[in-house]
Specification:
Shape: globular
Mean pLDDT: 94
Radius of gyration: 20 Å
Number of helices: 12
CATH topology of the largest domain: Aspartate Aminotransferase, domain 2
Strand order of the largest sheet: 2-8-7-6-5-3-4
Number of strands: 13
Structural class: alpha/beta
CATH class of the largest domain: Alpha Beta
Order of helices and strands: HEHHEHEHEHEHEEEHHHEEHEEEH
Low-confidence stretches: none
Helix content: 25-40%
């Protein structure tokens, strides 16, 4: 099974199949018109190296998040930021709130730390049980990993709860790696981030990949209020990992208020439409989401491998979620896209289940 789900290129190579990709959670609005224009008008930037300090890029990111330039680390996608964090923090024992994104584990394994998992339980609707987590953290952990909103469950933890958790962890000597890669899809996102509390023990990871529909560009950043850790990361990284087009994209996209507003309005409507549509289909159980994807459980006798195969034959690729920790062969994840394609996918799900 693919680590991150569907591979449309492999399907086309091996089976000659082209499908509607609902395994990847990308904004269906596509590239911002402002970005397209900026790239065309500024192709000459490819003739010189980017600023090795990425100062202007960091200034735009800092302004967007209402922090200082000194709090920003940039990278070739959120994944590079995670690997840099692990390399320079060097935790000894880590607790990962799961099921969740697989790259945390891969990044942490590079520093040979001990890894445990805290289970988000189905009978608790995959919502974080803070007292149970705090009880678990009373052991010997020095790092906690939390994805918010979480992939693949779509659940979002309120910042007041996270603030309590951050304070609790600080008193226990525990750092937090907080992945907010999908937060832009959450209604009122920037006001709901943990950034405003400026916790020194919390490192926040963000990505422009999903919300701004640029997965091929690879662009992410980190926010930290730990000066010592920031110095280590900047001193131990490869130079120029962010290319000139990605640097330009940051400056354009974070100030494209029209694109941001349209995307926020779209996801607000479509996640409601998709959930209500799935709820009407017998044989499955969708989980309420706060982001641009939705976790679904098969509650008939069908297993996800069979369901996925039927969906491919109907021209739709879904994410088999059985390789996430604590999920079995009854779970799949669907992206949420535009209304026309969402309607088509709902019909295909019903046909595949039937």
């Amino acid at each position: 099974m693919e680590l991150h789900g569907g591979n449309i290129y492999k399907l086309k190579r091996e089976k000659g199949i082209e499908v509607l990709d609902y395994s990847a959670n990308i904004n269906p609005m596509g590239l911002s018109d402002r970005l397209k224009e900026a790239v065309i008008e500024n192709l000459s930037i490819l003739e010189k190296y980017p600023d090795p300090d990425y100062l202007e890029m960091k200034e735009v990111i800092a302004k967007h998040n209402k922090v200082e330039v000194e709090n920003i680390v940039v990278g070739n996608g959120a994944t590079e930021i995670m690997f840099l964090y692990a390399k320079n923090l060097k935790p000894k024992k880590v607790l990962i709130v799961s099921p969740t994104f697989a790259e945390y584990e891969r990044a942490l394994k590079t520093v040979n730390c001990e890894i445990d998992y805290f289970q988000l339980k189905e009978d608790e609707d995959f919502i974080l049980n803070l007292p149970r987590l705090q009880e678990t953290l009373d052991r010997t952990y020095d790092l906690l990993v939390v994805c918010n909103p979480n992939n693949p469950t779509g659940k979002f933890i309120d910042k007041l709860i996270l603030n309590d958790l951050a304070v609790y962890c600080k008193n226990k000597g525990v750092s937090i790696l907080l992945d907010e890669a999908f937060i832009e899809f959450v209604d009122g996102s920037m006001e709901r981030s943990l950034v405003e509390y400026r916790h020194e023990n919390v490192f926040i990871v963000r990505a422009l990949t999903k919300f701004f529909a640029i997965p091929g560009l690879r662009l992410g950043y980190g926010i930290t209020f730990d000066e010592k850790l920031k110095g280590k990361i900047e001193g131990n990284r490869e130079p120029w990992s962010v290319n000139a087009i990605a640097e330009l994209a940051t400056k354009v996209l974070l100030e494209d208020s029209e694109y941001i507003k349209k995307s926020e309005d779209w996801i607000r409507e479509e996640k409601r439409f998709m959930y209500e549509g799935l709820e009407q289909i017998k044989g499955i159980k969708p989980y309420v989401t706060e982001t641009n994807f939705i976790l679904v459980k098969l509650i008939n006798d069908m297993k996800v491998e069979e369901f996925r195969g039927k969906m491919i034959s109907l021209g739709v690729l879904v994410r088999d979620a059985s390789n996430f920790n604590y999920l079995d062969n009854r779970y799949f994840r669907l992206a949420i896209k535009d209304r026309e394609n969402n309607k088509k996918v709902l019909r295909c799900v019903e046909d595949a289940i039937r």
